[in-house]
Amino acid sequence: METVLRVFQVFLAIGLIGVVLLQRSEGGGLGIGSSGGMGSFMSVRGTANLLTRVTSILAFLFMATCLALVLISGPRQQAHSILDQPAQAPAGQSAPAPTSQLPTPTPAAPQPAPPANQNGASAPGAQ
């Protein structure tokens, strides 16, 4: 059903583009339509009314198919964030240990005195 609506929407879009381009240009618009000579199918006014109606109908159908596609292709599962998921390790690597199992750091031991020189004197700056 979704595929049929998508194909129908593409045809509607192409038709809507064509109808808009056929409309008469009034003030620098996109219309490339004819000037409506004596041998035309309808009068200029009748053609304008017809193209306006066709444009309205195609625009309505296009919007209706857009809404139908949104409703049909709605979320199939409950929305979730990637931040809510636990971290996963890349393949070949082990996962990091949970923070509750990490060893606690031990307090730093006092620094030992610098070693003495061979003459028995302490290192410079150790005084």
Helix/strand order, N-terminal first? HH
Can you count the beta strands?
0
- The average pLDDT value, as a whole number, equals 75
Low-confidence regions: none
- Counted by DSSP, the helix tally is 2
Biggest sheet architecture: none
Rounded to the nearest angstrom, the distance between the terminal CA atoms is 88 Å
Structural class: mainly alpha
Overall spatial form: elongated
Q: Give the C-alpha Rg.
A: 39 Å
Q: Tell me the fraction of residues in β-strands, as a range.
A: under 5%
Q: Could you estimate the helical fraction of the residues in percent? A: 25-40%
Descriptive account of the structure:
It is a single chain. The chain is mostly helical and 127 residues long. It has a domain at 2-72. 39% of the residues lie in helices and 0% in strands. The chain is built from two helices and no strands. It has helices spanning 2-22, 44-72. The longest helix is centred in the middle third of the chain and has 29 residues, at 44-72. It starts with a helix and ends in a 55-residue tail after the last helix. 2% of the residues are buried. The model has no long low-confidence stretch (mean pLDDT 75).
